[in-house]
Amino acid sequence: MLNLSEEAIINKIKNRETFTAMIDGGGFTLKIEKYEPVLCAAIHNGGNLRPELTDNCLLTQAERYYEEDPFTASFVDQQAITLTANDSRYEYDLNRNTDECVYETAWGKEVWKKPLSEETIATSKEKHAQFYRIVSAVVEALAADFGQCVVYDNHSYNYRRHERTDLPVFNIGTTSVKSEKWRPIIDSWLTALQNMKVDGVEITAAENDIFYGKGYLAAHCHGLYDNVLVLATEFKKVFMNELTGETDPVVLPSMQEVYNKTVKQHIKTYYSV
Question: What is the CATH number of the domain that holds 227?
Fold first, then answer.
């Protein structure tokens, strides 16, 4: 794998080169095996913290892991274009806007032993902004080549904290989608999720049931581009014990395989819509 600067990554995209690279500093990894109008993202997959943040953090690694989205990158790792965050959302949350991406408290817990310096916050915000410059470079290239593109925005959620027992295994959030022209693609994605057969779990899928697609990746793309659709898709953590972090040896590998196949099949559907 290459380690590249932001400028070098953007130049490769402009030249339509295929590559796999980690950004200098390690914040994220971009893979482009071929150019097609689809980007698969896992923006909360990572758990890395800069050393000065680790030393100042009140939360244990296990506490941070609980709120992160482990394994989400593995559900799309067979796709041609993937963008995976390596840093923890506790360093900067990529699903919040740049001004609000650094936590002081999160889920009712204080995060830092002492307040972060302005310099530390600025560093985190710049890494966040850099990530979105790369997002824009990718989707603009794909839209230029193909007229439009779809972003599969993959997340997971803790369900045991909720009183409801009927929460969907998959939820698509679409409230930030501006145009009805995307409705056939959204409907076909919901149907594809509902038809998944995963070992060890009965699959259910819904739209705007528990999450509504109000995260910043969707807001960024839908706010700037009329020809980019973000499918903000949440996975119920049925593939792991959300409290202990232990993975389910049956559900996880099955879901990894089936979800990857489902995305590939839906991409074919997208081409035909």
Answer: 3.40.630.40
Burial-class residue 143 by CB neighbours within 10 Å (0-12, 13-18, 19+).
Answer: middle
The tally of domains found in the chain comes to: 1
Spell out the residues 6+ positions from residue 140 whose beta carbon is closer than 8 angstroms to its own.
225
- Which residue is associated with the tokens 């089936």? 258
106: containing domain: 2-272
3-state SS class at 30: strand
Per-residue model confidence as pLDDT tens for the chain (273 residues): 899 999 999 999 999 999 999 999 999 999 999 999 999 999 999 999 999 999 999 999 999 999 999 999 999 999 999 999 999 999 999 999 999 999 999 999 999 999 999 999 999 999 999 999 999 999 999 999 999 999 999 999 999 888 888 999 999 999 999 999 999 999 999 999 999 999 999 999 999 999 999 999 999 999 999 999 999 999 999 999 999 999 999 999 999 999 999 999 999 887 776
Helices (H) and strands (E) in the chain, counts: 7, 11
Extended beta strands in 119-263, E state: 149-157, 170-173, 205-207, 228-236
Residues shown for the chain: 273
The DSSP element (H or E) to which 162 belongs, if any, is: none
Q: What is the pTM of this model?
A: 0.96
